[in-house]
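Table S4 entry, Lipoprotein.
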Amino acid sequence: MTKRMGALLLTLLLTVSLALTACSSKQEPKEALKTAAANASKLTSYEMSSNFTINELSYKPADESQQDPTMTQFMSMLKDAQFNVTGVYQSEPMQTEMTVSLELKGDMGMTFTIPMVMTAEKLYVKVPSIPFFPIPETVVGKFLELDLKELAEQEGTEWNPDAMDTAKTQKLSNEVMDAVLSEYDQDKFFKNVDVKDAQLPEGVDAKQVVQFSVTNDNVSEAVKVMITKALPKAIDIVAKEEYRDMLQLNQTDIDQAKADLKSVAEDKEEMSRIDRINEVLTINNFNIDFALDKQDFPVYQKIAADLLITPVDTKDEVKLAFTGSNTYTKINEKAAFKINIPTGENVITMQEFEELMNSSYGY
């Protein structure tokens, strides 16, 4: 009896051990990203948070006497600018709500925050109070209702509900990502990053982190692969009838795009310039991290770039550094909307909005 119990316990321990190993095993970097892209189509709901920050933006002419004060002020305003989005999504019935904010620094610093809600056929945008742009107080704070079908008709285009089909959009995204990734050499462009070294935000529980990197050593190859292989394959995917109709592209546009790429790829002088791209571009850093959870869902992405551009003909210097991230939580849980679909007195139609704006200007 004791031996049989011991054998049973050993079998149970081995089974549990194998199951845990299967759940936590890491895939090869490219394969992991393909799996994550495929699993993204299984997302029926989630909460998301995105950020894009310009950490550095400056222009220094070779001849400092030609420094443009207006350009300097503009770049100063954009430096440290932040674009943030938080939101909730569910696929059935389709509903997305987002709060978009833009924060500008410097002497002309200001912040805009715009909540919005989207359903399969309508978009609601909360009218903000914008400095230097007077909007009637009776309008500020109300949600402007935009009927997407009516807007399409007004623009002389046919209403295309497929454009709002998130499942089809995700399928397109998966096919394009798979096609692009397959063209890049894994050993040169991809690697696994230890989770503890990935600087993941609090609350992100990742099993694996994959990093795609472009450096001064492989940037020329990266650009060539994109032009000669990745983009042509992506265009072929977009050219499929189901996607072409969804994106409202015609065959002429697609043929022109393919012809333009082919022209660049066959231009020896252009390819030679790409070989010498290091004369113009210095990459201090360009990494994209993808974090996968235990179910291989893509729960976090981060991009970090630090670039110096020095055109050969002018010797001017342009510095650009930025970071961006997307975080997904509460995946496939019941969506907890905070704004909800506006109704009643909180909603204003486009016609009402235009009438109130015109009357405020005395028209």
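The chain is about 35% helix and 30% strand.
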